[in-house]
Sequence to fold (264 residues):
Amino acid sequence: MTETRQDRPLVIAGREYRSRLLTGTGKYADLEQARAATEAAGAEIVTVAIRRSNIGQDPDEPNLLDVLPPDNYTILPNTAGCFNAEDAVRTCRLARELLDDHTLVKLEVLGDERTLFPDIVETIRAAEVLIEEGFEVMVYTNDDPILARRFEDMGCVAVMPLAAPIGSGLGIQNHWNILEIVENANVPILVDAGVGTASDAAIAMELGCDGVLMNTAIAGAQDPVRMARAMKLAIEAGREAYLAGRIPKKRFASASSPIEGTFF
Fold:
């Protein structure tokens, strides 16, 4: 028998988390639905698009932090909507100011408005500046094992390869690239973008990913709160399956009740 895999906690930037499901806070009908879905997901890290969400920039508008307070959640500011390194860096600096010197950020620099694929050149430029300024960078990138290693070597605290285009719900399109990234990483690998339903999340975890970040798959569901619960269970089931170790795939099955060794 092969050695049983040992579980280990999810640790990001020196902090330990029980939940491996990270959730977004946009696209909900209202803040109350965002709160209910976040609770149902059991998420401890919630990502916030600084350019689209009010976390104190506008005192006259509802504040997301009133329903998802930083005392209860790790707020993960992200640079969604940024298409160059300068805007991404500026957005992270604003988040640090709004959140009292908070340094954990999700960096995404987009290169195409239709697919929302990342612009890797601009992402690298932004990551270099942010790391130099003391930010703890979780980076959104392509599912490229070489790039993943590059970002880890730069000092990013987590690498977040896409499974498919943002919001597409297509699921993991290149299992082998994700697996290669996971097997060679020394920082957490979290699938980001492309998850559509619970089975997609389970597959990501079965591949050995440390977690999954999702927004549209929950917020865009007909019943976001129920989908959040489904995703929570899928993440847990996928992690357990990974640790248990699946049987190998074969062209032919072997009998579950062979005749050898029977008494008659």
Observations:
- Strands lie at 10-12, 15-17, 21-24, 45-49, 74-78, 104-107, 136-141, 158-161, 190-192, 211-214.
- The chain has a mean pLDDT of 93.
- The helical segments are 31-41, 85-98, 120-132, 145-154, 175-183, 198-206, 216-219, 224-244.
